[in-house]
Amino acid sequence: MEYKISDNLASLKPSAIREIFKSLTDPTIISFAAGNPSPLSFPAKELGEISADIFENSAAAALQYGITEGYPPLRKAVAERLQNKFRIGREFDTTIITSGGQQGLELACRALCNPGDVVLCENPSFIGALNAFRAVGAKTVGVPLHEDGIDPAELEEALIAYPNTKMIYLIPTFQNPGGTTTSAEKRKAIYAIAKKHSVMILEDNPYGELRFAGEDILPIKSMDEDGIVIYCSSFSKILSSGMRVGFVCAPDAIVQKMAVGKQCEDVHTNQFFQMLCHRFMTERDLDGHIAKIRTLYREKCTLMLDMLDKHMPKEVHYTRPEGGLFIWCTLPDGVDMNAFVKAAIAKKVAVVPGTAFNCDTEAPSQSFRLNYSTPSDDDIRRGIEMLGEVAREMLG
Amino acid sequence: MEYKISDNLASLKPSAIREIFKSLTDPTIISFAAGNPSPLSFPAKELGEISADIFENSAAAALQYGITEGYPPLRKAVAERLQNKFRIGREFDTTIITSGGQQGLELACRALCNPGDVVLCENPSFIGALNAFRAVGAKTVGVPLHEDGIDPAELEEALIAYPNTKMIYLIPTFQNPGGTTTSAEKRKAIYAIAKKHSVMILEDNPYGELRFAGEDILPIKSMDEDGIVIYCSSFSKILSSGMRVGFVCAPDAIVQKMAVGKQCEDVHTNQFFQMLCHRFMTERDLDGHIAKIRTLYREKCTLMLDMLDKHMPKEVHYTRPEGGLFIWCTLPDGVDMNAFVKAAIAKKVAVVPGTAFNCDTEAPSQSFRLNYSTPSDDDIRRGIEMLGEVAREMLG
Lengths: 396, 396
Known about the structure:
The structure is a homodimer. The first copy, chain A, is an alpha/beta fold. Chain A contains 14 helices and 14 strands. Chain A has an 8-stranded mixed β-sheet with strand order 2-9-8-7-6-3-4-5, with helices on both faces. The first copy, chain A, has a 4-stranded antiparallel β-sheet with strand order 10-11-14-13. In chain A, helix 3 packs across helix 11, helix 5 crosses helix 11 (271-283) and helix 6 packs across helix 10. The longest helix of chain A is centred in the C-terminal third of the chain and has 26 residues, at 286-311. The radius of gyration of chain A is 21 Å and the shape is globular. The N and C termini of chain A lie far apart (53 Å). Chains A and B meet through helix 1, helix 2, helix 3, helix 4 and helix 6 of A and helix 1, helix 2, helix 3, helix 4 and helix 6 of B.
């Protein structure tokens, strides 16, 4: 039988990164391609202790169906943490649990966008979000990402050019893939422009707690007096990515519709791990644990930057992140980025080509993304040295 | 700000059952309204033992990102079980893991349906599936459910009346809410009609392992030589509903697109519980465990039927299921079903009104759904006695 696939999914390709992830079964490849947190960032021993207690004392509740919006004690603990850490959450806001931050992004788009509507995104941006928007039939349009975030004037131009824009999607802190952080001034200006044009902001903050240098900058959601910001984040980078527990804080009217969508997708998020997260948050030292992850990533990022400084030709540009998981490298004009990535994989070093992150899937890119949280220190040393060799060969 | 919700989600209401579930916090209410498996059906002790071992020996893998299609050893174990138990899975089929059976149903519709397309459903049918189809913009059209399944001739009439039908959604075994099972003859006839009209069948089989009386009937998928059946099921009713682990077996071309959709929704299913399911399947006695659940549900169903026989006026009709979780009761014409349900809740007994399961959300119903897996034996005795009182009062 010839299958007729829906318009929304017919043209959509699997994420290049997830595909690369699948192909990385060759243990001799040094991978800078993943977006995985370090396995050292999972507090396995403590999670195991709490888990044993849940199986002993609360198994029936932990293994049974739960409420779509999430395990109430976890929702409360997350709402309190968002308030205390980030000054997020006003009277009109509601916090719900999602199956990873990904589901929050996807549900926000399902709640707001009809096919053909536009989502303005930083360009480049997170491929998982871009694909989720496309799978709803929305069009992803890029606003160029600079070292301190998108330019508010360029954002307003795009809003005027695309009057059917329903959402502005931003990762203001430690952007993926850019590794950049939007300045406080730009955050204010972006918020004002969104308000002026009555367009919602979808703020994605999966890496916000992973700052290892510089000063904290509050999320855009912290200034949301008008109920125009949907805030998504998750426990993936601070407790466990494989458990798929994230959260959304957004105006209640939007959250209600997102919950209806969530009910259709998976009824609710894994109940056992919701209880595990709640117990860890309230009984253990989450901040102390995060401090350890920050130290780890500071060391790994510094090592990778040191190696890049040492081995990369000076014509190759790269960001110097203050947190998060990624460094964004840009080759000089005239060098073929795809050829570079292929030459690297021939030397058994994997990076993600920048084209994967483009809002316009046909657009070229001079850049590639490096991840420093997953590889071992030794792999960082050897892998970057080899990337340097490839670059020197190609730059002649 | 006035929010503009997308067309697909704007009119969609949360599932009546999930809403009833939320409101059942009053511990004095006897609830026959849930669709929950009995907490006695969760092998908590054994899951706890395996869990401890995973935290001890495989924590890094269990807490890390996984592959969208699912944990490979679990996919293999599920595919083998489907083959051995149900003769399901041909060369062109692929088995993937989903976040509960619900996600499989939703992804099938996302993969095949554009807004306005029709999904033919048994009427009444599972509200979670109906809402998932509606959330994609598909139209749910009912084909009347009889004691032995839908009528093939009526199905063909509907296919002719709705030429933009993309999918036929069926729960052939222990239907929810009907408690009915489609006969082997009808399954064959339905398959032949779907093939003739080149329309896919979405077969939902969450209760298929819960037969406690009568003879096994193979799923429609077992006769799928033509690659026209998408088969969805889950571990919710045999290991744990709260963990949200389900699976799909369908032609690879369809599964590929469903996986792209899944990547957008939640990246992958909780990795830890995928490993837990795999270990339970391969190291413990899953069939022995299911045998215990069958015995439990046989006893509970028999008790509820005995009480109905004793207390219900003979004008009230109810199905006599051979498995699954539900009994479907129908009041005689002229009795107001909604008034009955309200009178029952006034006596602190909750049931689900049949209107919740209608394909046409505006259509009336004379029926209500009873669940026997969740309530205690004592609650079954007292609750049915009270429902009998309400019925006698209303029938005069």
